[in-house]
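Here comes my example:
=====
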Amino acid sequence: MHRTHNCGELRLPDAGKRVSLCGWIQRSRDFGGMTFTDLRDRYGITQLVFNMDENPVVCKKARELGREFVVRVTGTVAERSNKNLKLPTGEIEIIVAETEVLSKSELPPFTIEDETDGGDELRMKYRYLDLRRATVRDNIILRHRMAREVRAYMDGEGFIDVETPVLYKSTPEGARDYVVPSRIHPGEFYALPQSPQTLKQLLMVAGFDRYYQIVKCFRDEDLRADRQPEFTQIDCEMSFVTQDDILNTFEGLARHLFRQIKGLEFPEPFRRMPYSEALAMYGSDKPDLRFGMEIHDITGLVKGKDFPVFDQADYIGSISCPGASEFTRKQTDELTEFVKRPQVGAKGLVYIKYSSDGSAKSSVDRYYSQPELEALVKNAGARPGDLVLILAGERGSTLKALGELRLEMGNRLGLRDRSRFVPVWVVDFPLLEWDNEAGRYFAMHHPFTSPKPEDSMLLESDPGSVRANAYDLVINGVEIGGGSVRISDSNLQKQMFRVLGFTDEEAQKQFGFLLNAFRYGAPPHGGIAFGFDRWTALMGGSDSIRDFIAFPKNNSARDIMIDSPSPVTDTQLDELSLRIADRRKR
């Protein structure tokens, strides 16, 4: 082999050994008679020493080595005089006797160090160089460790890893499909699966009562930090189980991962919070419970005081921000501008500063007396020294805006500690949500989600009030995974399709394979799918899943390293019976 050891392996007890190392030149420092070079591979960095007095030929060679040259060196391990205890190999160095250049490198377009000078687009273009940086490399290794531990836990729980097709059938509901034209069947298309949902249900019908897969999924949707057009999920399904069985099993997976990856234990069972409570208290179905600052409904307290904004509002809510009463006018103005952003959607902000002396000063002092303000802040859960922030409007949109404001204040006050993890199961979601534009109901989770048994009789008479046997695992305000108990009765499934606006013929055309399977004995079953990229990013302390994917797409869904997507030849289009429309005519 080219090397006897890697660059992160040698320690002080190895002193005196003759070794060979291979790697990339990180940097060199020339001090006249001595040259010091850092050699890097994926395991670490080792310092090389070239001595002009002892080996002038090799030392001259060393001075010709540029950044990112790939080299092989042979030499003797020695104790380092100026030790660097920040490095695992910082107590030793290699006195080099022989050097061989295995591959030369041009000057890289950015420095390959933790704190690089390369911007996002440049690093994406040269991703193979970005992956050499220790921070990015460690993210990919973390992903590997996560996958290994998932497999270990699932195997221990009796789950079977079953692969499902990538060339699948396009179905409605959910995000837009990526479609693949068929050459053999002109004018017909496969779809890349958004999830193996119906396939894993068929595996339950087939008797594979515990299935899982770490699987690629595809959705053609607008991108952001936690989305990619292709992503990975831990897909799971179980038969002969209740919702509690599923939650307990996969709470076990979460505990296993936190124990193995982060060394953390959770002494208490994960909290279970109804969807309605999550919205009312946190303005979100994925609440961040690392800090308080719950939302308080103060509608009845503030109406009827001739303040038009409140008197005309459907709902008025507040949050109390601990220790923020000293915020300046500039800071409160910034918060007002924040809530007016389109993604937040509020029209304005009212604040009350609850001073440490117990007095209250508000931006609407003219409408409320001092005793009324003091009663208001106390009802909002505030303590002296807090800042109370108030939004008003339609209930749903105001709660959402308060949720966004709560997270913003959590950031500004340093309350969202990345080293702390607070998981919660959000349960009892609505089964359906109404779309005004389409004029019909859509499945909030997917069309195969079972209604709560006690609500199923309302499915056709009052579908908006039906709760689902659905659940999400949320950690630190991030939806890590979601699932449901499935419909396993073909009649109930047909009824669900009708409520969603499908005719029997349309349902049979799109999902006949599943409905037909249910005719042959379908067990009660349910499951969950976890966003593997999101979970890994959370463990790694990042908001962006892109940092934990070896070759991600940019925000325009483009791989700028290989220039994809890209046009295909006319010959390929002819083989697929396709023609590109002239966009200028459309």
User: Anything to note?
Assistant: The chain has 16 helices and 22 strands. Residues 134-156 form the longest helix (23 residues).
